[in-house]
Every structure is written in C-alpha cells, then in structure tokens.
Design goal:
By secondary structure, the chain is an alpha/beta fold. The protein has 14 helices and 14 strands.
C-alpha cells in the first residue's frame, strides 16, 4: 500500500462506526454462554503454547497453525499436559495460516494470534473478514499503516478484539487510574519510562539450516526472505524470540516491552484518547544492519486532554555508554543483568539516589516514574500497582474511590467472556491501536534520526522520508490491504 492509499484508509477508518456487532455483511460468530468456543492458535511459539494455551484448553481447540513442525508438536504436548483427556485427533494442523482461514474458517469462533509481529496484521485481517473474533499479541502490528487497517477492519466487521496487554486485566492499573482521577498525583507533565532489554544485535549471526520440515517461506511471510540462525548463548534462535531484534520482523526493545510498560501511563492519563503532536528521537545507537537500536531515547509529546495538562512521555532503553554486550552484562533474551548498567532517565537516577538508600533497592528494572510535589510514584510493568517514595507518601494519600470494575479472570479468559457476552474486551483495538501507534511512531522516529517530527494523527507533516517508515512493502501473496 502506498502513502496516498495509507492516508485514504486512515481517513476512512476515522469515519467508521464504533463497536457494531452483528450489523455487517460478514456476521461475527455468535456464541452463547453455555457453549465452549471453537478456537484456533496461530503461531505456536512461547506466548502461544506457554501462555495462551492455559485458557484455550477450557474452550474447544480446533486448529494449530505454525510453519515449524517442532512447534506444532510442542503445542500438542502442552495440550496433553494441561488436559490429559483431550481428544487431539480432531485438531487440524496448518503450516500456513492463510490455508487455515481459507479452508476451515467456518469451524472457528476465535483466533489467538501469537506469531512474530510481522505476521499479526494479515492473520488478524483474514480472520476478521470471516467474522472470527481475534486476540492479537502485542503490539498490534508491525507498522502504523497496519494498525490503522486493522482498527478500521475491526469496526467494519464488528468482531470482538483483544490485544495482549496482559497487565491491563490487573487491579493495579485500575488503581493507578483511580489515584490519578482523584487528583492524588497532581499535575503530570512528564512521564519517565525505562526498559531492561537490548532487542538488537551487534552483528548478524552465521547462517544455519532451518529445522527439518519447516516452511521457511511461510515463516518469513510478507517480509523479505532472510537467513535462519540458531541460538548463541546470549540470544535465542531467530524464530524463537530473536525476531524482535530485526526491523523486518519485530519492533525492537520498545516493541517487545513498551506495551507492558507504557500501558499504565496511557490508561492513567488518557493518552489513548488523542494522538501525540510530536515524536522526537533524542539518542539512537545502531548495531547490525537491519537491526533495531542497541540504545535509544525517544520523547512523545501529547496535547491537553480535558482538564489534564500536556504531557511528554520519555522512553529509554538499552545499556549505558561503555557497557559491553557480553555474558557479564546480558542474560538470555537480551535481558540486562544489572540495574546500574541500564540506560536510565537521569531523573530516575536522581530520585533513586534520594529515596533508595538501602542496598539493592531501586525503582525496578523496568517501569514508569512520575514526580509529584510530595514525592515520587513508580509503576512496574504488566499493570503492577503504584509504589510511593517515600513510603509515608502512600499513607498520606487516601485510597481513591473505585471507578473501574476489577477483572477477576486472566486477560485471555476476559476475551472469551467478552465474546459470549457480546461486548467489548478490556483492550480491544479501540485501546490497543492507539497504544501500538505510539510504539510504532517511536520506531519511525528512531529510523528518521534525531529530530522532532510533528504528527497530525495521519502522517508526519514536516518530513516526507519519515512517513516511509510508517509503511512497508510485502512479498507477493502476503499483502495487507
């Protein structure tokens, strides 16, 4: 899709009605409270097999789709572990999810999409066009263009949607928003976020042979065909987790962890209600060609929202300058071992020095900080509840009135409940699309260089080259349109 088509699609999306179940040409699956949902798992990697499967077994699993036969085997093994009585003989297997939606769509009520980011959009779009409800892992898509296409499709087809912001189903994120609504944090103009990952590479690992029987073309999908490589100690194999590191397949450190970290400030401050007015990469340190940055700092600035002041979200990831990317500093999956090695906002380091006086105490390896006139409030990832510094600040702040209903199930189970009840899920595309767009705008700013980019909700108004980073080209047969 070219830039003109992208903008046209974005404008059309803004004019579509909101949640409109059962009123479109393709009728969404209607599922009563007493019936198990027929569910397909698209992508049988770690998130799908280890996380999503836990609640899938309470429904009726009808299909697995993954180009790697080893991962299909892992899905069956996990199913037998969770439910030894499960009848696996009826589960259909597909190497290519396009075949799944072409051949078995009528047998599916909901699709759980846990592929690499580059495959989210087409899989979700094919499902929604068939009236299938979709759960898509975070972030929603690889590019801003894909996010807008999926958001428009969800409105058009009226299906129930959910993005894998798992922390959003916790009580902590709701408590944070309630404190904010009660005025406990005062006026918030700056939010500082940091991450404990290096989702990048210094060099491309040596080419290796893909697992026997793997459909490598199907795994690469719409992105360019690349060389497969195996794990090397510090980082896992390309297909297991390392795809996060590469521009064609993942979205780097902010794409991997940003959804878990910025979910709380987005919800608390209503940043999903209006797009940022500008995004600026303040620092970008690149590694291997085709990989995301080894370290970055990006600012996203949002306008006033009702009575809330304009606010800037400051994002930091990677290691400090001079810290080597070796076994002494990194663990598996690019996890930074020592908090002191992290590239942290100076404001966070200043407040840690002030309030964290005991050995080993800090604000956490990933999280968010806001500064109030009486102290500091921090929020861990995955919807963790607020922490107050100094501790007496917590006692000074009365517990706010409850504004949000607490979700008493898992994030995935809440999606299934929403389908049965014909309602919106907690992080449907109306919420997940704006959050994903923030992450992907930061990605575009990283690639555009260290400059301020003005954003009008559809495109950058001052840099035509930067707009090319909002889209991508697809190999034949894999287009998202």
């Amino acid at each position: 899709m070219n830039r003109r088509s992208f903008i046209k699609t974005s404008l059309a999306a803004s004019a579509l009605p909101l949640f409109n179940i059962g009123c479109q040409a393709t009728r969404p699956r209607i599922c009563g409270k007493g019936r198990r949902l027929r569910v397909a798992l698209v992508g049988c990697g770690g998130r799908g097999v280890n996380i999503a499967m836990t609640d899938m077994v309470k429904e009726e699993i009808v299909a697995f789709a993954d180009p790697n036969p080893w991962r299909i085997e892992a899905a069956f093994a996990r199913l037998r572990q969770l439910d030894p009585t499960a009848d696996t003989s009826k589960i259909k297997v597909f190497r290519d999810y396009r075949d799944l939606f072409d051949q078995a769509a009528d047998e599916i009520d909901a699709a759980i999409i846990t592929t690499q980011n580059s495959q989210h959009a087409l899989a979700a779009l094919m499902a929604m066009r068939k009236g299938i409800h979709v759960f898509v892992e975070k972030p929603l898509a690889l590019t801003v263009e894909e996010v807008k296409v999926l958001h428009a499709a969800a409105k058009r087809y009226g299906v129930v949607t959910q993005v894998g912001h798992h922390g959003h189903s916790t009580a902590g994120i709701r408590l944070a928003a309630e404190y904010m609504a009660a005025g406990a944090f005062g006026e918030v103009r700056d939010v500082y976020c940091w991450c404990d990952r290096v989702n990048s590479r210094l060099s491309r690992p040596p080419k290796a042979t893909p697992p026997a029987g793997m459909d490598w073309d199907a795994w690469c999908g719409g992105s360019p065909i690349c060389d497969w490589y195996d794990a090397d100690g510090l980082f896992p194999a390309l297909t297991w987790h390392d795809w996060h590191n590469w521009i064609d397949y993942g979205n780097g450190s902010i794409g991997n962890m940003g959804s878990h970290i910025i979910d709380t400030p987005v919800f608390m401050l209503g940043l999903d209600k209006t797009p940022p007015v500008s995004v600026e990469a303040k620092e970008v340190v690149w590694g291997a060609q085709g990989a995301w940055p080894l370290r970055s700092r990006v600012d996203l600035t949002f306008p006033a929202r009702g009575k809330m002041s304009p606010v800037t979200l400051h994002w930091y990831d990677g290691v400090k300058n001079g810290v080597s990317l070796d076994a002494a500093h990194l663990e598996g999956f690019g996890l930074i071992q020592n908090h002191a090695d992290q590239y942290l906002p100076p404001e966070v380091e200043e407040m840690e020095a002030k309030y964290c006086t005991k050995p080993g105490v800090n604000f956490g390896r990933l999280g968010t900080m806001i500064v109030t006139d009486r102290g500091v409030v921090t929020f861990g990832g995955w919807g963790a509840p607020p922490r107050f510094w100094p501790d007496k600040l917590r006692k000074e702040m009365p517990k706010p009135p409850q504004l949000f209903e607490r979700i008493k199930t898992s994030h995935q189970a809440e999606f299934y409940a929403a389908i049965r009840e014909g309602r919106k899920a907690s992080t449907d595309f109306d919420y997940g699309a704006p959050l994903a767009e923030m992450i992907l705008l930061a990605n575009a700013a990283q690639r555009a260089g260290c400059k301020r980019l003005d954003w009008n909700g559809l495109q950058f108004t001052d840099d035509a080259q930067a707009n090319t980073y909002l889209t991508k080209s697809y190999r034949k047969g894999w287009n998202v349109a």
